Amino acid sequence: MNKLFKRFWQIVSKPSVHLSFGFLTIGGFLAGIIFWGGFNTALEVTNTEEFCIGCHEMSENVYVELQETVHWKNSSGVRATCPDCHVPHNWTDKIARKMQASKEVWGAVFGTIDTREKFLDKRGELAQHEWDRFSANNSLECKNCHNYDSMDFEIMSERAQVQMKMAAERDQSCVDCHKGIAHELPEDMESGEGTLAKLEAMATSGYKKGENYYSVRQLPLFTDKSLATEAGQLNAATEVKILEVSGDAIKVEIDTWRKTKGFGRVMFEDFAMNINEGYLTKEVAQSDQYMQKGETKEDNLTGLPWQKVSLELWMHNKSLTESRDTLWTFAKTTYDTSCSVCHTQPAEGHFDSNTWPGMFNGMLSFVNLDGDTQALVLKYLQKHSSDFSDEAH
Fold this sequence. Notes:
Radius of gyration: 28 Å
Oligomer: single chain
Shape: elongated
């Protein structure tokens, strides 16, 4: 090792025939700065919207669509450009993305999508690549601007509050629910936007004390009649019993199960079945004020203890229906039309209730369903799974 070091020192300390070693060192350093500066300057040029829309494939398709959305023009005057959404901001991921995007040069040279017809035929594949990327990095580019911690939930609509609070708790990827907000969806995708509004119109009115009803969609729960203190969220198609009707508020009873490991916040419809009925805030889940505790049993498969509980909470005097069959009809239609885009979807009874959540989540990348619709369709599949069906599968 010493010999190698001495040999190296002899080389670097030996005077240059024409130029000194110091001059070469400083010159090399300055050349490195110039190269690095030039490289980054060129890199930043490729991160401009002008560069992105330099080819007609982009300028005449997705760029035109962007101009019709809130990301182009809005009340706050903040506009998202192409690289804001499609290029990672940190350097290493940015370089990796640039290397990946080099395939686009090949596509431009050989005219892969050089006509509108070719673009539309390829749109589903192109969109899926981006959705996969957003799912993999948890929608990092979206969250550079849209941060859960900075959201004011109080100024959101009730429906948005329910969805966004739940997403914030899980730090959910934005693209799970928000597809087609900056560009049009592929033609073979069924949009779920606004579909639950149809069911809202079908909800029963004039709820009677002592009667049982089912939630049309995901609904907020409260601890008090004034509906001021949040208690959690009721999932779609969950059964409640009316205990009291007081103007715009109703007091309901929810018979449910929960796993006692942890805070026991998630409510389930039946023992050892992960059929979600909603969730409770940590404060309510830990309080005996709003619940009556029943029997405790251990799930032999997982070894987890489950507890039967009955909750008495308040909710808005709306969005309930007398018959769950109405919800199942809607959910089945949605499942049949939306989840057969890429393949023939499995029959409802093909899986048990605990397997369906994983299978269904794998399908969501290929469809555009809002959170309410996702919850309702999943519950429909679980309630018509092999656990509740004698049909062969």
